Amino acid sequence: MKILEVKRYSKNTIESYSSIVKMAIQFFEKPLNKIDETELHRYFYHMVHTKKVSYSYQKQIAMALKLYYREVFDQNINLEFLFPSRKPDRLPVVIARKEVLKIIEKANNIKHKSMIAVVYSAGLRVGELIALEIKDIDSSRMVIHIKSGKGNKDRIVPLSEKTLSMLREYYKEYTPKRYLFEGQKGDRYSSSSFNKLLQAAAKRARINKNITAHTLRHSYATHLLENGTDIRIIQKLLGHNSIKTTMIYTQVTEPTLLNVTSPFDD
């Protein structure tokens, strides 16, 4: 995927697209330029109906494969019609503050606790978490520098005092070299490993919801809104291009709806 590097795609996009192409090659067990469009349609049917991929991942598969054919084989294939026609209108999964604390408490060690705390306290995407380097934590200014986030954009988010305290304890014990949270071989931690440790901690905390890194991000935004933070500030903190994306949280926290008393309680 050197072509994508030259074209300045973000690291996360390059890794995601590379993974999608490798998965497709493994499925067909032959080079993709030997695949006709009918076989590609069968692959999409498999991913949607057997693998049950999400709306956004289905769209990402189509975009990645279309780009791969164009850049590698100089072949323009029509995959736009395989984009899902309508995004499901679902509200984000949000957990309470006390549930976040329970999950952190039930994490196995200070490294896992710190990772969960960083994601929640700064509202990070999992790709942003694992890309963090030690130098991105600025304790003098109390900020975290997110580099090459979604859309290949940098941003600054506040660093929590409690999170900094946990990070200092973690650093003394694990002494990472470059990345803030390293894998076993000193490289970047994997996003799948983080979600597994997060789900294991949530299970031990007896929280019966499908908890992922994005659940923590959703909860961060929702809790900020509940505290009275302006929606446009939340937009900047989350790195959203459009305010429309951030507005979904107003449906979760609408005070007039949350304060309605059920007639059953009367």
From TrEMBL:
Highest taxon in the source lineage: Bacteria
Keyword DNA-binding among record annotations: yes
InterPro entries on file: CB, DNA_brk_join_enz, Integrase-like_cat_sf, Integrase_catalytic, Integrase_recombinase_N, Integrase_SAM-like_N, Tyrosine_recombinase_XerCD
Stretch forming the signal peptide: none
Keywords linked to the UniProt accession: DNA integration, DNA recombination, DNA-binding
A Pfam family recorded for this sequence: Phage_integrase
Domain Core-binding (CB) span(s) in chain numbering: 1-73
Limits of the Tyr recombinase domain: 90-262
Similarity comment: Belongs to the 'phage' integrase family.
Name of protein: Site-specific tyrosine recombinase/integron integrase
Source organism per UniProt: Croceitalea marina
